[in-house]
Known about the structure:
Order of helices and strands: EEHEEEEEHHEEEEHEHHEEHEEHEEEHE
Mean pLDDT: 94
Strand order of the largest sheet: 6-7-12-10-11
Number of helices: 9
CATH class of the largest domain: Alpha Beta
Bound molecules: flavin-adenine dinucleotide
CATH topology of the largest domain: Uridine Diphospho-n-acetylenolpyruvylglucosamine Reductase, domain 3
Low-confidence stretches: none
Distance between the termini: 35 Å
Radius of gyration: 20 Å
Amino acid sequence: MPLRITDNAPLDALNTFGVSARARRLVELDDPADLPAALAALVGAPARLVLGGGSNLLLAGDFDGTVLRMRTRGRQRQPAAIGEEVSLQAGESWDEAVRWTLDQGLAGLENLAMIPGTCGAAAIQNIGAYGVELAERFAGLSAVDLDTGRQQAFTPEACRFGYRDSVFKQPGGERWLILRLRLRVGPQFAPVLSYAPLAAAFAGRSATPSAAEVATEVRRIRASRLPDPARIGNAGSFFKNPVVNAALAQALHERHPGMPMHPGGSSLSDAPVKLSAGWLIEQCGWKGHRDGDAGVHADHALVLVNHGRASGAELLRLAMAIRASVHERFGLWLEPEPRIVGGS
Ligand SMILES: Cc1cc2nc3c(=O)[nH]c(=O)nc-3n(C[C@H](O)[C@H](O)[C@H](O)COP(=O)(O)OP(=O)(O)OC[C@H]3O[C@@H](n4cnc5c(N)ncnc54)[C@H](O)[C@@H]3O)c2cc1C
């Protein structure tokens, strides 16, 4: 399909919060061969936004600039030094790519099944779930600098992945348009069952579960716990879990003995400790809160929801009120996970 350009384009169906917003211009790229034309369409735009599936985005108002929607498709298997790699175009659906690898008998992505969105965006925040992060399967990516048109290959180190973080979320990182990523997968399979409900599902079985069985269980758990954006608008977890140093964790524990704490993933002596943003929000009384159509999910304090016709600005106002109250009570500033764009 040739490059499609629409002026004054509605974005309502292109964000999983389902909020109403418009872009001054929408450019939709389906065919990688049309990349030069897509880059040319961005020249002179007052602002630009790359869009995948819109599942990690809060449109706080209209976007006075050009939105480039990545819809490029293509997936390939290729041999690698160890095992195999798959190469995925940025516009591929992440979940369809996970299904495809499993159908090919390739393991490695099963814990990340059913995460909404595109493959390109998966690298932006180093998606993670049920004990696995993208970074652990990542081999490299290709991106183009939207300022210069220069293409560059990124190694895992160059991506500087962290907890829901990468170089692409750092200042200046938004100039990179991710085109393709390569992931390590393979027929050899060692299940990651560190997430308690997943371990419980396979407890008592003598045989090692297959990758497909792990993915099926992940899907079952996710479907039973997470709200489906097709039924109620949301962007998954709205805030990142705060990561604090050991001294602050100790001080917080003394003041709030019930506060859940988990290892933050470092072996340093002053190891970071991960707190539960959902618990902090719940303690401040927000779970199930509703302000018009903007609300906090009744079962998940970490998930903001659009009950119908909430505007992005209303959802943002609610998020900021939650953030302020958590700071007032615990002295911690929560960091939003989705990108917030548009509005004044
Ligand atoms: C119900 C639900 C459950 C979720 N569960 C999880 C989960 O378990 N784990 C998790 O990590 N996330 C989760 N998410 C968040 C979201 O699915 C992921 O962050 C996903 O990777 C976003 O993909 P997207 O294509 O929708 O990105 P978008 O929302 O379209 O974009 C997100 C960001 O990436 C940028 N971007 C998108 N594509 C590109 C590209 N090709 N090049 C450069 N920049 C790009 C955008 O500009 C924006 O800054 C969940 C969301 C929902 C709604």
